[in-house]
Amino acid sequence: MAAVPDPRDPRGKRYSLVSMLAVAVCAVLAGACTFAAVADWVRDLDQRMWVRLGFTDRVPAATTVWRLLIRIDAEVLSGVLTTWSRTRAKPVLGAGRRWRLVIAVDGKVVRGARLPDGRRVHLLSAYDTSTGIVLAQVQIAAKSNEFPAFTPLLGRVAAQLGSLAGVLVVADARHAQTGHAEQVATHHGHLMVPVKGNQPTLFAQLKALPWAQVPAGDRRRDTGHGRKETRTVKAVTIKTPGGVGFPHAQQAVRITRTRTIKGKTTREMAYMTVSLPADQAQPADLRTWARSEWHIENRVHYVRDVTLREDAHQARTGNGPAVFATLRNTSIGYHRSNGETNIARATRRANRRPTDLIDAVTKSNPTTQ
């Protein structure tokens, strides 16, 4: 964490930057949801633990914590903490000939935080679906949208992984943009996106394909939450003269979802493109990857809202909203890498074991939990 630039005036520093950041990370891993809660967490520790965190006879007040964290460079902090999280995570051993790393990209509005002009803070994140770690996060510029932020986000993911070669990026229909497809291909990666009414020409081309003549490649039936669902996947190669007008698209995909809830049956069809050929992306793979796009929403954004109370946190000043979102991402990734599925329970356990938590953050041994 010493790699994070210190924004404070060198004169009058009472606490080291590394100690302050270590406290912020530990406190949020233990469930702290506000700047005041971070200060309360360290204040409740005994003096022996203060010394381990780099303090002596006093610890920072809530206002001191707040003044530092709202000025920290959120993107640098995100890169540092992501690197730390990835060194701790167990290596993912891909099973099967067609296994590949899938990165889900999605944006989230921090509803409790607002910019000086009154607009809400909007963040775009990239999530490693195999480890549960957010690899990168960028704040969307004022008077803009997710499209321009996609390029810097992709660059930060490539920097974390070393390369995007062979990596599959999945995103929602807003990212069915020709520019995004070109950028992913430039990094030697692959893109899978649904196509909806925001791309009417492409949507019409996909819908007009002779799906009735295409055999079902995969069919999966699930039950749960009071419903029965069947997903039928069809895929057809379109990398031919006269294919669809989307860069690098190799296959068109149609997923038919049939749901029965309380005796009422509904059916909907989703159309997608993927830049992988059929020998590298079978219908069963396509079904799994299509559902991976929801992982970032269900396993990160929902947890940040409900468990870590992000939308209720009215952090409004400087980089505060983005910094605290980064800390929440780190907390989720830390507990996921420890095999936890219930993040609320994991944070409660961490709060009861501050010694283990401080070991994990301050020791160089990446296997310490």
From TrEMBL:
Keywords: Membrane, Transmembrane, Transmembrane helix. InterPro entries: ISAs1_transpos, Transposase_11, Transposase_11-like, YbfD_N. Residues 349-369 are annotated as: Disordered. The chain crosses the membrane at residues 20-42. Residues 2-84 form the H repeat-associated protein N-terminal domain. Residues 101-328 form the Transposase IS4-like domain. It comes from the Bacteria. PANTHER family: H REPEAT-ASSOCIATED PREDICTED TRANSPOSASE, PROTEIN YBFL-RELATED. This is ISAs1 family transposase. It comes from Plantactinospora mayteni.
